[in-house]
Design goal:
The protein is mainly alpha-helical and 223 residues long. The chain has ten helices and three strands. Pathway: Protein modification; protein ubiquitination.
Length: 223
């Protein structure tokens, strides 16, 4: 008997290598399908029965940091943030609403609003941090998870400490675990770094967490 796919001799209709490759492709397709379902669910949040009713009911978002004085215009019916939705529902003015968004630059706020329309975003490091903070503040969990996955994929020895601090401040559990694993895996280099020496005084909690991570992976104790 030969394998149906690669045509090499096999005891069954599919050899082990082809069988494993098929399973890998199935897992990848299943992951893509779940991602698409998640995006569809996000894009259908809070849409009215007749979107045309509110399409002209605009909202102006004003970034309250940075030097830019540009505003971000949007429509109330596309709000997929429970926080924004509550603001709009409590707004008795039928005209244009103005909302001040604290501690955010124009570029980040504009990208955030575009994501609420499209569920699409092109990330780079600083934008991922900015959008994660906005997503956490305005309860856009789909975007928060997307940013966290991006940051986890880019964790390395150089940014592990700063990412750890960010994760601790913003309740990013998966990012926190990823940074601790990176630090524990590179402990010799880490304990000789200036960042570690400074962090022992600035954030002793980090040292405790690292020690626990080292114990968990049966590594040597840090000095």
């Amino acid at each position: 008997m030969i394998c149906f796919s690669c045509r090499i001799p096999s005891e069954s209709g599919t050899c082990k290598k082809c069988y494993e490759e098929v399973n890998m492709r199935k897992d990848a397709l299943r992951h893509n399908i779940e991602e698409l379902k998640s995006k569809v669910n996000f894009l259908t949040l809070f849409l009215p029965m007749n979107p045309a009713i509110q399409i002209t009911s605009d909202v102006v978002l004003v970034p309250c940091s940075g030097s830019s004085i540009a505003f971000v215009h949007a429509h109330k019916f596309v709000s997929r943030s429970p926080v924004f939705k509550a603001m709009f529902e409590n707004d008795m003015d039928e005209g244009q609403s103005v909302i001040n968004v604290a501690d955010v630059a124009y570029d980040a706020l504009r990208t955030f609003v575009i994501y609420l329309y499209t569920a699409e975003v092109c990330l780079e490091d600083q934008m991922a941090f900015d959008l994660f903070i906005l997503a956490e503040k305005y309860q856009v969990n789909h975007l928060k998870a997307y940013c966290e996955k991006f940051l986890i994929a880019r964790v390395n020895e150089e940014n592990a400490i700063s990412n750890y601090t960010f994760a601790q401040q913003h309740n990013a559990k998966q990012l926190l675990d990823s940074t601790l694993t990176c630090i524990a895996d590179n402990k010799e280099q880490f304990v000789r770094s200036e960042a570690y020496v400074n962090m022992k005084h600035i954030n002793p909690r980090l040292v405790v967490d690292i020690l626990e991570a080292c114990f968990a992976t049966e590594l040597l104790v840090l000095p």
